[in-house]
Amino acid sequence: MQFKYNLVVGAVALGLAGVALAQDAVVRIGHVGPTSGNIAHLGKDNELGARMAIDELNAKGVTIGGKKVKFELLAEDDAADPKQGTAAAQKLVDSGVHGVVGHLNSGTTIPASKIYSDAGIPQISPSSTNPRYTRQGFKTTFRVVADDVHLGNTLGKYAVNTLKGKAIAVIDDRTAYGQGVADEFEKGVKAAGGTVVAREFTHEKATDFTAILTSIKAKKADIVFYGGMDAVGGPMLRQMKSLGINAKFMGGDGICTGELPKLAAGTLADDQVVCAEAGGVEGEEKKAMDDFKAAFKKKFGIDVQLYAPYVYDAVMVMATAMQKADSWDPAKYLPVLAKTDGYKGVTGTISFDEKGDLKNGALTLFTYRGGKREQIAVVR
């Protein structure tokens, strides 16, 4: 009996060993975004974009280095807080991730980028627009959206040349993103010959803007630009209406979300808001974006908020570089990732320059009509 038992145990052990040998190699992709806090809706949107890409890659059965690989998403919450962001980055490094897509905010992306750089792990941000991110001399930093220089400057010129703003007020939330895009907007206004009558500051968790808006009203501003996120932009719009300020409201991609009308509690007038998303497609490329949004809603039961398509593309670009390099070792696929040129994504064609910035990045201008976001134009 003992002999027969040993044979059974041995057979089981050999069988398990065979299963282990047959198991897929695991490639770990990290994702970080604020899935708690006042912009959790945007962080979750990002995470779902990553999950959609991971699921599609696994459904395809990707082979790298002669092995079938299983992609695994390691998702972390940074709550849009720089300290929590660096902690999340270190956790991912310690977990042995092979690449990272994130973070959402420039204020968390920039400090986290040094941790990834020191570890030699490629990082693609799907939404961080502060120019400093890719200008630190790191070889590991990339982004799939245009930066604040392009976005802010374009909006500033649009405010003067198209909207005919005569007295323009600028507000920012003092974050790396908010202040950065507001600074570039102000430069764009001045370059177009416009006048900035007020520069005010708030913070990313503020709820009362009475003092700064009263000051702006006294200066008869006809355009108010806000550098920050929709969680503050919506309440600011409500208070503008209650104070009788009928100015146009402008902002970058942080306010340019499907959630803004809800956050503004139905106070948006048609065409009152003009905002820009740091990306854009038109013509034949628009069909790929529309198809993605339809597939996203079918899969998750909710609409895309903002950055999910960019996260999806970032994961796919990273996986494509691994396949081309025939390795998921960061040291081996990083040089291939840096040479990405002409990748056809749902957000458009992706090519990186020597800094890791998107070449010829597009911007899409939007407004809101009937509580729905509508595209105005795509500019480059």
Automatic annotation (TrEMBL):
InterPro entries: Leu-bd, Leu_Ile_Val-bd, Peripla_BP_I
UniProtKB keywords: Amino-acid transport, Signal, Transport
Domain of life assignment: Bacteria
A matching Pfam family: Peripla_BP_6
Transmembrane segments: none
Signal peptide coordinates: 1-22
Residue ranges occupied by any Leucine-binding protein domain in the UniProt entry: 27-369
GO biological process entries: amino acid transport
Similarity remark: Belongs to the leucine-binding protein family.
Protein's name according to its UniProt entry: Amino acid/amide ABC transporter substrate-binding protein (HAAT family)
Native source species: Caldimonas thermodepolymerans
Phylogenetic classification of the source organism: Bacteria, Pseudomonadati, Pseudomonadota, Betaproteobacteria, Burkholderiales
